[in-house]
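Protein modeling request. Please complete all fields; requests missing the sequence field cannot be processed.
Requester role: graduate student
Desired output: 3D structure, token encoding
Chains: 1
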Amino acid sequence: MMGPAIGFETERLGLRQWRASDLAPFAALNADPGVMEFFPHPLSREESDAMADLCSRFLETHRWGVWALERKDTGEFIGFAGLNIPATPHPFQPCVEVGWRLDAAHWGRGFATEAARAALSVAFDRLELTEIVSFAAPTNVRSLRVMERLGLRESGHFLHADRPDGTPFREQVLYRLRREDWKG
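Delivered output (184 residues):
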């Protein structure tokens, strides 16, 4: 699964290509109902492995994407963060989104914000993208706060086509950040 993907570090994290050793902890993270609270369902091992493979292949092809996150102090895989082109059609496409998913044991330490800020730097400083979006359910307060800390601003609501009708997470809040507003 190794490839020529852009890899880099922040103060506390390595953002890197996916490894075979990431698959088991990634599957555990994706099977955690708390981590997956705002998604249709926790992922099976097969679904989780397929997602990691997709992320790895995208990185190999584009040299940017969704990176595996590793704590520099422990070497521990803790989740992912990065840039993605949504596969689901949304009313604001085409777009590139910034996103993250961390093991619950690593929440509340600023890792998501640190990693997403680094991904935004790649988006605006290296790739010279003009805008980045992010979105979450209105009740996903933790993710909405990360978006706000990153400088993204609320830009309306939409219904996520891949979320079932009648679920509290079908409605999504859209956030945007334009390159000229990026503070780095």
